[in-house]
Amino acid sequence: MQQLYQAHNIIDASIVKGLLEQGGIRVYLSGYYLQGGIGELPASGTLSLWVDDHQLVLGRQLIEDYLATQEQESGNNQTKD
Question: How far apart are CA 81 and CA 77, in angstroms?
Fold first, then answer.
């Protein structure tokens, strides 16, 4: 297994995990239960998504496509205001 994604928070991790699972990728979410320790643990860097080695390339592509879509939508919302 290899780390594919470092999440900012549990919501971010859940969204990306769901996206990867919809793409047929089995995902392991590391650090889920550490979120209860925020305050005693660093607030970031505890959540990460891991995938099997052979699914790494597809996983990266799905995440890149997702992030590009998010940037486009963010840009479109700013120009409408």
Answer: 7
pLDDT tens figures, 38-77: 555 555 567 899 999 999 999 999 999 999 998 888 777 7
DSSP result, 17-76: HHHHHHTT--EEEESGGGGGGBTTB-SSS--EEEE-GGGHHHHHHHHHHHHHHHHHHHHH
> For the chain, which domains are there?
2-80 (3.30.70.1530)
36-51 exposure pattern, b = at least 16 Cβ within 10 A, e = fewer = eeeeeeeeeebbebbb
Model pLDDT for residues 1-50, shown as the tens digit of each residue: 999 999 988 898 999 999 999 999 999 999 866 555 555 555 556 789 99
